[in-house]
Amino acid sequence: MSSPEFTADEMMTIGAARSLRDGAACFVGIGLPSTAANLARRTHAPNLVLIYESGTLGAKPGRLPLSIGDGVLADTADSVISVPEIFNYWLQPGRIDTGFLGGAQVDRFGNINTTVIGGDYANPKVRLPGAGGAPEIAASCGEVLIVMRMSPRSFVEKLDFITSVGYGTAKGDREALGLRGRGPVKVITDLGVLEPDADTCELTLTQLSPGATVEQAREAVGWPLKVLDEPTVQQTPTETELKVLRELKATIAGGTE
Amino acid sequence: MSSPEFTADEMMTIGAARSLRDGAACFVGIGLPSTAANLARRTHAPNLVLIYESGTLGAKPGRLPLSIGDGVLADTADSVISVPEIFNYWLQPGRIDTGFLGGAQVDRFGNINTTVIGGDYANPKVRLPGAGGAPEIAASCGEVLIVMRMSPRSFVEKLDFITSVGYGTAKGDREALGLRGRGPVKVITDLGVLEPDADTCELTLTQLSPGATVEQAREAVGWPLKVLDEPTVQQTPTETELKVLRELKATIAGGTE
Amino acid sequence: MARILQLDEAIAELVHDGDAVALEGFTHLIPVAAGHEIIRQRRKDLTLIRMTPDIVYDQLIGAGCARKLIFSWGGNPGVGSLHRFRDAIQNSWPVPLEIEEHSHAGMANRYAAGASGLPFAVLRGYAGTDLPEQTDTIKTIECPFTGERLAAVPAVNPDVGIIHAQQADRAGSVQMWGITGVQKETVLASARSLVTVEEIVDELTPRPGAVVLPQWVVTAVAEVPGGAVPSYAQGYYERDNAYYQQWDLIGRDREQFESWLETEVFGAERSTR
Amino acid sequence: MARILQLDEAIAELVHDGDAVALEGFTHLIPVAAGHEIIRQRRKDLTLIRMTPDIVYDQLIGAGCARKLIFSWGGNPGVGSLHRFRDAIQNSWPVPLEIEEHSHAGMANRYAAGASGLPFAVLRGYAGTDLPEQTDTIKTIECPFTGERLAAVPAVNPDVGIIHAQQADRAGSVQMWGITGVQKETVLASARSLVTVEEIVDELTPRPGAVVLPQWVVTAVAEVPGGAVPSYAQGYYERDNAYYQQWDLIGRDREQFESWLETEVFGAERSTR
Asked: What are the distances in angstroms from CA C124 to CA A3, B164, C141, C153?
């Protein structure tokens, strides 16, 4: 059986979906995380619990939501609660197994910037949307999955601003800061997957996307990238994964994602 | 028109009801306060907002509730909220105009004991139920009405335990303690009504119940009672007040109050 | 996913001697049957936690299950005192009872802090009262912005939180409605939780004012129709007000109480009250 | 009792130059018409507060109404940046914009503290991030029981809180359902409040998941059908997703924006968006 055709973005979304354990409670942001979580719920993880920061617990949307507060989330949730409650009673105590984060910049310890680029804070070159739920998702979820396309502008030696903490500057920093989740366990990109080194927490290329090379990955990263001696290659998307993913995406044709 | 017959307890309940302003939000405890508030809502104060600490906002019970968490309160409320919310979002910010308190002991500054009598805290002669909502009702309601039958055992020189603060030991104590409500504006008893002196906050007999005398009141109080030069006499219950009160009480015949 | 267990299995597995246990309910939906099962299994040295300990706590205390009570109002609502509670405090019968006493506002915030994964809560409370002198669980804290002084109380995080609800579905998600008190916080603050329910249904139909606890935050569900009697379960049965008055007579006397215990708890496979 | 006013009367009376104003809504029920009326009445020097300032805040900022923005995520949801917001921060156009920046958890707790009459809130937040360096509204506080260090943030208490809801009754009690975000807290934290509603009804029928604000905590209600367009009002209309994308083009260019302002806000007695 020949593998079906697929894009690097599709591989990235499917890789993210596969990282979600059935039955886990997952804090989902809009865009790729929501697509990945809804894909997982329709494939290997039918009991995945989707939680959106708008206050929907256990949403089971029949189509991809178009915003974090889409009515389809409230309509299909086990419970809709207030925004203070979602952060205080559900995220903060560590009840949520997996959080998704993206960002404009990530560094080698999985710290993330979604605030400003260039200049300084008061006079930035580019003003980004800011923190949103990210700092506390990064702190309190049992584990974090980061999903970002690789490029030297995004994978940088030094962040312009630390919005959310991955591993700080070294192993042990999370514990010293009182952050109770494990931190980012995977950075899922279009070229492959990075995971923290067990001893140093430095992000290390452990898997390549089908067709991608270590050289491509090194060039797309703004620091000397650590690479596992023999990185594996991600399993290519199955026909089912691709079919379900494309059906999901079709439900939001014409909308924003 | 001759006055109808009535008991001292009926006068006390009616006096309490009359103290409630139409449209006010009233934090109601079970027993006499609930009877008085429901009487007021059926007579001069149809827009009185009844709030019970079980979390019912704007209850409009068709009969007297038998407990603070009676189902009739939830069924008729504008909104039923959690107990943390009732204390944090509604009582604490001073949103509630009037609170009712009773107790086993009250002193000349309207401080109340509902905790222990005699002995000491660890080995009391009588263990009472304790604080419940009272300390924060006393602190945060716009004003407090205390309702208690007068007797030397209840109106005491010195409390065995301060459960809820009236005026502390002198005028100005409430402000020093950071208590934001005005404190007890009336102590409504079977023999008459006490009000705080404008200069000292000491409770002063300002009204007598019909038929009661200053001497009776002095004998029923464990400290040298201050009496207004010419205490007025409470208006006797109207026929309507008595009729509605008795109908209300009849709705709980056989139940507990 | 919550496990669906029999009540006796659930208590045997979840409640151990020495545990801190909260059986919550605010007049409505009091988990009385679960309390009786704890007595029946002769648990001891429990720290019992509840804002409004009423007759089921009087029974647990009288049966000698408790070493300590954390509470804010201990009475027989609408009737008067709890005699077993008073006997334990005043006469150490049948065993001494340590108490940790708060106001409702304080206890509600302690549960909320527990549910929130915070070590403490801040409130406007206790100022000028004698309560802070009697416990090391009420302190003052200064606002870092205004300098104002407020009360601080530590979180409560029971080993086991037990509540009663109207319904659960087969996966163990729970729905309760009417007055729901501090029950959500109790489950979320506790390391383990048990929800007894009037019935297990195929699907939870959303209702106005309902509180839903998803199955993944509930440890176990037990179907116990009438599990809140003599309190009430809105939509199922009314409060047995007469029983609260009868309890005053039973609880008042040690011998009568012990006879009640033998007949109604130890003698019954499942108590009717 | 809340007063039932026309939208323009309500804004004229409740919102003054220099006020701190929160128009809240979390994707759903965003009080857009009220925001446009503020622009139309040419308010200035406002401190705008909102967790998720989106296009109506972009419009208020672009129109020069705001001196300061207190927020946690400023973007066009699902589309990208807010260009007027960026132009104000990066180029002080049309007027300089001061910012006070938090996380969602921090902002939600600031509202909750405001609603609770507390001067501050405590949370596990901000640790290790650069956010505390940029504001004096994030401090650390020590738990008086465990010694643990946590974040503290000051309450927000807007001069005016404005939200949109589905329904009010004739006395001004408000009911909203679906995603209700931080709107209850916004009204309770504010000195004055305005609720625009899809319709005023004779009676509020209880609904699953509904939040009710009784009339005695609401200052004014204005009936504004479509008052949340281009966001949505569950049970009334869907979100106009295309408009959020169109806004990206309008907001990107100063001249296009000013032409939009003239036509859609100043030129319209009541804007359709």
From this structure: 65, 13, 11, 11
D200 and D177 Cβ atoms separated by less than 8 Å: no
Q: How far apart are CA C88 and CA C58, in angstroms?
A: 9
Residue D188 contacts residue D114 (beta carbons within 8 Å) = yes
Please state whether the predicted TM-score (pTM) of the whole model is above 0.90.
yes
Residue C222 contacts residue C165 (beta carbons within 8 Å)? no
CATH superfamily name and code, B8-247:
Glutaconate Coenzyme A-transferase (3.40.1080.10)
Domain ranges in chain A are 8-247
Q: CB-based contact (8 Å) between C180 and chain B? A: yes
Determine the 3-state secondary structure of B26 from DSSP.
strand
In angstroms, rounded to a whole number, what is the distance separating the alpha carbons of residues C170 and C172?
5
Residues of B catalogued as catalytic: 53
d(CA C228, CA C236): 10
Q: For tokens 């340590």, what's the residue? A: C98
Domains of chain D as residue ranges with CATH: 3-102+157-241 (3.40.1080.10)
Rg of chain B over Cα atoms, rounded to whole angstroms, equals: 18
The proportion of chain C whose per-residue pLDDT surpasses 90, expressed as a percent, equals: 96
Cβ atoms of residues A27 and A137 within 8 Å: yes
3-class secondary-structure state, position D268:
coil
The residues, any chain, with a CB within 8 Å of residue B47's CB and separated by 6 or more, are B22, B23, D1
Chain B contact for C154 (CB, 8 A cutoff): no
d(CA A24, CA A50): 9
Positive/negative CA dihedral, B171, B176, B181, B184 = negative
CA-based nearest distance A53→chain D, Å:
9
Structure tokens at B160: 């065995």
Within 8 A by CB and 6+ apart from B122, the residues are none
Spell out, as residue ranges, where chain C has pLDDT lower than 50.
272-273
In angstroms, the separation between the Cα of residue B79 and the nearest Cα of chain D is 6
**pLDDT tens-digit readout, B176-232:** 999 999 999 999 999 999 999 999 999 999 999 999 999 999 999 999 999 999 999
Residues of D with CB below 8 A from C152's CB? 143-145
Give the residue-averaged pLDDT of A57-79: 91
